[in-house]
């Protein structure tokens, strides 16, 4: 009997896409891939706790599953609200700070999107595009 919940499928999808991206050389930042894989593994184990609790009718496991899902929902909701609270100028400033602070992500973006620079192209800089 093979029973999968949607949370388990999402977690396996996260892990698979991260592995696919690193395997095909689309992503060279191991920190980003590591975080995505860690979130996928975390969601997989949480889904497994919920599945075992439901199959075994174990009240404590179901309670912890409910509490953890509530915490995940609160984090997702607060991040969504914070993203919606940023106006266009603040979003642009945030993107520019991220662009100037990460070299590996910058080269990935330049190579995949075939562009050079964030807003303006400086001729004395090297470009991966």
From TrEMBL:
Keywords: Membrane, Transmembrane, Transmembrane helix. Coiled coil: none annotated. It is found in: Membrane. GO terms for cellular component: membrane. It holds the Pfam family Tetraspanin. It is a multi-pass membrane protein. It comes from the Eukaryota. Its main location: membrane. The chain crosses the membrane at residues 6-27, 32-55, 61-86. This is TSN13 protein. It comes from Horornis vulcanius.
